[in-house]
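Quick one: structure tokens for this chain, please?
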Amino acid sequence: MAEQADHPGELDELWGAGTPDGFRRLWAPHRMAYIAGETGTGQVDGGGCPLCRIPTLGDDEGLVLHRGTRVYAVLNLHPYNPGHLMVVPYRHVAGLDELDTEESAELMAVTQQAVRALRAVASPHGYNVGINLGHVAGGSLADHLHQHVVPRWGGDANFITVIGQTKVIPQLLAETRASLAAAWPAPGAGDAA
């Protein structure tokens, strides 16, 4: 590039990018695979629903932690915190009210198993558990319902997150998947816990 910016935001003006937004950028070119729709093997998804496609992959490749009868658990490819996972019905439905009774029951049972596995592996201080219904509610894959389970620790939103607007994930997803899958409780295990 022939011209150099002397201060942050000058490049935005130089390139006509509009008003600077105040965010600093952490360059992560490995995320381009997600944007381009590529899987871990370099194959392009083809535009279908990624949450429908994940069960067709092997557990390691798909980051699958548990396969139930009606739902499965999978690591989030872009986690908010280490161990961020999702519990997903196999059936492609968008609304919570579209789940049948068995799917609803298994969604909650597998979510409980997820909390137990996270507690065994990572001892979080708390959890965020929830479903974003619709795009305006924050659902990036709003056409296929999924419940997030995000482990939380005191201080997990430290200065890097707050000041640098950057999230640090200290473990590779494959390693997180292996440890959580190994600790996944059997159905019914720990129900009295």
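Residues 1-6, 39-46 have pLDDT under 50 and may be disordered.
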